[in-house]
Amino acid sequence: MRNLSLLTDLYEFSMANGFYHDLPTTNATFDLFYRRVPDNGSFVIAAGLQQVIEALQNSQFSDADLAYFRQLGLWDEQFLTELANFKLTCELQALPEGTPVFPREPLLTVTGPLYQAQLLETLLLNIVNHQSLIATKARRLSEAAAGRPIMEFGARRAQGPDSAIYGTRAAVIGGASSTSNVLAAKQFGIPVAGTMAHSWIEAFPDELTAFRQWANRYPDNSALLVDTYDVLNSGLPNAITVFKELRAAGHEPVGIRIDSGDVTRLSQAARAQLDEAGFPDAKITISNALDEAILTSLRHEGAPIDNFGIGEKLITSASSPVLSGVYKLAATEQDGNIAPKIKVSASREKLTIPGQKQVYRLYHRGTQRAFADLIALTSETIVGQTELTVVNSDPVSVDREQQLTNFEARSLLEPVDLTTTSAVSVQTIQANMQAQLAELPRATQRLVNPDTYPVYMTTTLSHLQSELLTQLTVGSD
Fold this sequence. Notes:
Blueprint: H1 10-22, E1 27-33, E2 44-45, H2 49-57, H3 63-72, H4 77-84, E3 91-94, E4 100-101, E5 108-113, H5 114-119, H6 121-145, E6 150-152, H7 161-173, E7 178-179, H8 182-188, H9 198-203, H10 207-217, E8 223-225, H11 231-248, E9 255-258, H12 263-276, E10 283-286, H13 292-300, E11 307-310, H14 312-315, E12 326-334, E13 337-340, E14 357-364, E15 370-377, E16 387-392, E17 401-405, E18 407-411, E19 414-415, H15 426-439, E20 455-458, H16 459-476
Parallel strand pairs: 6-7, 6-11, 8-9, 9-10, 10-11, 15-20
Antiparallel strand pairs: 1-5, 1-12, 2-4, 3-5, 3-19, 12-13, 14-15, 14-18, 16-17, 16-20
GO biological process, one term: NAD+ biosynthetic process via the salvage pathway
Keywords: Glycosyltransferase, Ligase, Phosphoprotein, Pyridine nucleotide biosynthesis, Transferase
Domain Nicotinate/nicotinamide phosphoribosyltransferase: 150-329
């Protein structure tokens, strides 16, 4: 992976320079989290950690970088010398990729020298926000597809090459089965899929000739695009003719793709004609600006569709194109003394949760059924407890305090090995996501009006937050 150390905002370097000089022995803990779920959903799928690791492994500043910094004339030579000899010593904890994560829970925490941890803000947000957003959108589309495969077709609509490549990776984490993006398929070991474009049919004298030539070239991979001229009166009859010729030659057709029109009506008519012609196993694939609302509607209408090719609405998360993750200082440490930190805002929902923390998923005892998450200070012992008074972590919640009994707690944040050169496959991550989704209440996974999944804080953490808030409020009077 290329060096991304300069992929940051200018003020990160200006703050880092100040921290290096003014607070040289101070360590810090930052939390990366989000507050609002895209598309009014219940949770986000964590993604991007592997690219975070790769980027941080290559954290360094070249002679050309330093020459550029000197041209800016903003920072002194002592700081530039530190950057010239830069060695990242921060430690990370993160949720494994594929983990469903809820508002205000850290997806990732960074602990280390204050100036170093500050420098990582923009880069980490860029990677994690993007991939988590696309993985979350893919999960929604997979839910709507109800078990039918989704093929990611979005490279031409992505906002640049990196968005296409890593968006594809995230889409598979979230549930897509394959991609048309050859580079992403090669890079991440993803099955590659695709049929043809309308230009293939248009380039030949007639549609039947175009289909025959395709079948001649790809006799065992003949999926024909049937909507260039007229699906029912031209495309489908010509496809059936070629399918019969293929079968006579000892090959079985793959199926057809429809890219326009009333997909429900066309797919129902196509299924009937394919079955009548003796091709019940020929697949019907549809594409063209699909989203979860359209997929849900098609399912309710009984459209006999086998595969979905989804492009722009997936690769850009078009209906909700931003995950507004943030990176906030949670604690500082100097000479062994930890000082929790909090951000206060006129908007109470932006109140942060202070301190060095761990996130736990809570299960009904003896089951795999999760019912809530819990945020606690790392100094607290949670695993092994069966009774606990907790407080809703939502700062605008009315009914905040709860008594929990007969539960099991499992920690979610795990140490990140920044020296590893191995990567977990996207298929393994997808399987991890699906296993964790199976543990969550089904009502929280609805695409419309999902049930709220509680995220609690321990009373110790809640009291700490309240104390800091009171101190800052009093101090501002």
